[in-house]
Every structure is written in C-alpha cells, then in structure tokens.
Specification:
Blueprint lengths: L12 E2 L3 E7 L4 E6 L6 E5 L3 E5 L5 E6 L4 E6 L5 E6 L3 E6 L4 E6 L4 E6 L5 E6 L3 E6 L4 E6 L6 E4 L5 E5 L5 E5 L4 E5 L7 E4 L5 E5 L5 E5 L5 E5 L5 E6 L5 E6 L3 E6 L4 E6 L4 E6 L5 E6 L3 E6 L3
Antiparallel strand pairs: 1-26, 2-29, 3-4, 4-5, 5-6, 7-8, 8-9, 9-10, 11-12, 12-13, 13-14, 15-16, 16-17, 17-18, 19-20, 20-21, 21-22, 23-24, 24-25, 25-26, 27-28, 28-29
Amino acid sequence: MSGDSEAWLYSGRGAAPALRWSFTADAPLAELRLARETGEILVADISGGLYLLDRRGRVIALIRTRHAIQRVAWADTGIGGTAAFDDRTLIWFDRKLQFDWTRELPDDVQAIAMDPYGTHVAVSMADSSTVIFTSENRKVSRFETVRPLRYLQMLATQTHLLGAAEHGLVGRYSIRGEVIWTEKLWSNVGDLAASGDGRSLFLAGFAHGVQSYDGEDGTSQGAYLTEGSVALVACGYGKKQIVASTLERHLFAINEAGDLLWNLTLPEDLARILMSPLGDWIVLGFASGRIARLDCSR
C-alpha cells in the first residue's frame, strides 16, 4: 500500500482519511480485534498465525500455531485474549500470546467476545447456546436463544452483552444469562457494532442499510440507507460517527444525522473494520491479510 497503490484513498469524496501505516500477515485474514485502551491490534490469519501490533503497526508479539483459527477476542486493556481453534476449542492467552488454558466445547463456535477488563468471555455456539467463562476457566452461566448468535459485543459500563443472529434476532443479555430485551429482525445481518455503554447499536443490514437501535430497550431508531449492500459496520466508544462498507467495496463514514462525511472505493475485499474510541482513526482488515490504519479528519 504505497505509491500508486494508495490511489484508492483519493477515489471518493469528502475529507478522505490518510494512511498512517500498513502491515501484511503471512496468510489471508481470519480475524482482527482492537484493544481500545492501548490501541493494540490482534491479528489472526488462516494459517494459524497470531500477531499483536502496537498502535504504530509494529509487531510486539507473534506466535504460529498448527490450528485453524475461526474467532478471536481481545481485552480493551490489552491484558490478554481468547481464540476459537479448530471449531470447538477455546484458548485463553496472555498479552505475550502464550496459552493459559484450553477448553473443549460441545459444538462449533459462532462468535466470541471479551469484556474490556479481560475477566470474562462470552462464547456462542451452533446449538444456539451461549456460555460465559471467567479468566480462571470457570463457567459462570449458559443461556439459549432461538437462533445461534453470530455477533457478540460485551459492554464497558455494565456486565451485559449484545448479540445478533445472522437472521431473525437481536438482543441484550446479562452475563448471568438473563434476557434484558430481544427483538425480531426482518433482514440478514453481516456485522454488529455498539457504543461502549451499549446505548447505540448498529447492524449491517445488507440491502436494508445500517440499522440503528436503542441498545437500552431494543427500539428501532431507523436506518442509514446507502447504495449497495452494507456488510460491515464500526463505531467508536461514543456515537459521533459510523463507518461501514458494502459488498461492492464502498467504504463510507456518516455522522449521527446521517450526513456523508467521506467515501472511498476499496481496492480489494474487506473482512473487518475497527474504530478507535474517539473515532479519529480506523483499521481496515482486508481479506488478503493486509491491515491498514487510516487517520480521519476531526
């Protein structure tokens, strides 16, 4: 991503973000996560590699495993993380990417999420169950949903998690398994993003745009409609702006009022978007394994 290859950054309109750094994993991307307090980025590739990058894009820890990595989660404090290996194995590791413990699960993992302080992890499985474990490998709770939760996010201000299925369900739950609210969905979902306090929830709804919900009670707040099929969405700790991408390789940012701030045409397929807590930079994870940090105008 240098020289002529950076031309895509000027392919749209508005105050285009600037490339800060880029990094390329050794294999196509499996997953990408951000520690919001430290700015560190956890990268997993499909060959079993795990990389921890600092906020300048430099590798500070690296481990290569013989396992297929499906999902990863990383604490906002940078204390450690978890990963789903070989579909049914949960791994807990420290910030040096050294394994602390493993646990075999009864069904294929659909999603995992870690709380900001690295004390609990939520794991949803294909049998429609979600289980909460502590950092000491103790099971706290288990609850079931009408559909498997494909997207999870644990909140910073309460011991709650938000979850959505690929179709038909979005909800909020306590880590004890209590249902706070659930709502039916009438479209497919490609991604979930929420503010740190969970008051604002966004779903990538493909042809239905970016769907907005009140995370406190689940009421619909409408949708941000755009050309194309929205597949990925990200927001910061607050709700100042939203960044989303479409299957047609368009990347765009909008403010709370739905006004377009900027848009770009991406050079290749995107697998993940991450946003800093203040919304002043984003990280793009391309399916090929390329990672790019873009600094946004304030």
